[in-house]
Amino acid sequence: MTQGEDVPPAVLSLAGDVDSDSVRGFAAVAQRLLNTDGLQRLIVDLGEVGFLDSSGLGLLVQLRANCARSHVDLVLTRPTRSVSALLQIAGLDDAFYIDDAPF
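Above: the chain sequence. Below: its structure as tokens.
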């Protein structure tokens, strides 16, 4: 994955509970970031997520599809243990590029 020299990666930092109450707001921010001209990489920082439910998983899956349509690389970074376990249980750990290191 490479990033264009002119446009830095966009970062979406998720924190707290990513559930049916918060997912709509996170999705709106993600869409605004995806509308950045020339964007080539979107980093989703999961390091402060306490809880992620099926709505949160749906957000990540939809974000993956939106990024693919926009030709933007999606990187999940710093997933908490509970998020990593949920991605694995759901069979989605191989569907995403996951970087455990801080960006």
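The chain is about 35% helix and 30% strand.
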